[in-house]
Batch of 2 targets.
Target 1
Amino acid sequence: MKVSTKQGKYFRGGKVQKTFLLGFCIFAFVLFRVFWYRTFYIINEVEFTVWKTYKGCYITPYKYWGVLPPKDNYLRISNIGIADIFICKDKTLCVFIDPHSDGATETICKLKSCQYYSYSTTGDKEELKRSRDWVEEWKKNQSKYPYITIFARVMKIEINE
């Protein structure tokens, strides 16, 4: 055993133990970051995964544990977006994206069984009609089906059954 007055005690294998400990801490931190913003919800027998990453907020209609983003059957909204997902009787998902939350510029919908509703906010007459239709369709679904609302900015999830 070697004792140094400048840096304290050294133990046999000390560098290996410190390297292992550092590697383990880095590995634990990476796992913590990958799974920290991932939550699971069950609504009307559909299990949702909501996962906030630096690329956006991923929503899948199944439990997703992957480390990489999903390749198919997902919805991605921006990290400041808002989405309402209604679960219809035949398990079809009706996805409503609120373009006023972030301009809906970061939305990618690759859900297999869904109806997607959004509109732009240019202000012309056609867009105003689409926005009224969007609100009417949302209200119709809201009175009939359970749904999940995802506020990606603050990772707040509301379930309405």
Target 2
Amino acid sequence: MQSAKRPKKVGTWQAVGGLLAHYRRQAGLTQEQFAEMANLHIDTIRSYEQGRLALQDHRAIEFDELLRTGGALFALVDKLPVQARMPAFAQGLVDNEQEAVAILSYETQVVPGLLQTEAYARCVFEAGYPAVANETADEWVTNRLKRQEIWTRKRPPVGHFIIEESALRRNVGGPEIMRDQIRKLIEANEPAHMGVQIMPMDRMPHACLDGPLVLLETPDHERLAYLEVQRASFLVEDPEEVSNYHLKYGMLRSQALSPSESMRLLERLLGDQ
């Protein structure tokens, strides 16, 4: 297998944080004083200024008002692409996902991020361990929803998703959140360029028992494979390796429930909630 690419060090948010710190000092405020003004924990302010936490649009607007910067922070943050808002380990996926002409995804543990509802995504992030701060969870949810804007492009990518049945039987957030999530999956199967299939729990043989997989095709028709485990990721570009992953996905597609069978299962799951 092709070795993992080492993620590039991302300096965007360090630069934004440095500008925030500059404006705070220019206003004659310590980090403690500014945290109190913004009704935030001092560690959150430190995370913003050190570039560990991305400054979201609503927070940039609030800080501009508090520091009287004339909208400078928001003007900068608002121009940053969605890729810059993602954790470094996931940027290899998002960089290509935003321009992809085709996305094929197999997911084992949760509903794929590109199809998650806001409430479901929040529950997934809040269930993580060690626990993340509320501000971080808000940031991640916002970023996940921004990624989904690819489906509203003038020419959206072809999207196909295979999801393990067990992931849909996990009661993430409670019955109401799961009902909304299952409805979104049913709706995702309606456009001609989209497809959702379910892999039943009792189905063998199974071509992808070794984990989740995302396959991407670029506008130049280059094919990539993205693999993620915990907080590490692999972006595979070698044509032979990527071909093997496409073969695995094709076989898995034939082993999963058909699209119509998958929709019937989703409707049954919807009734069980």
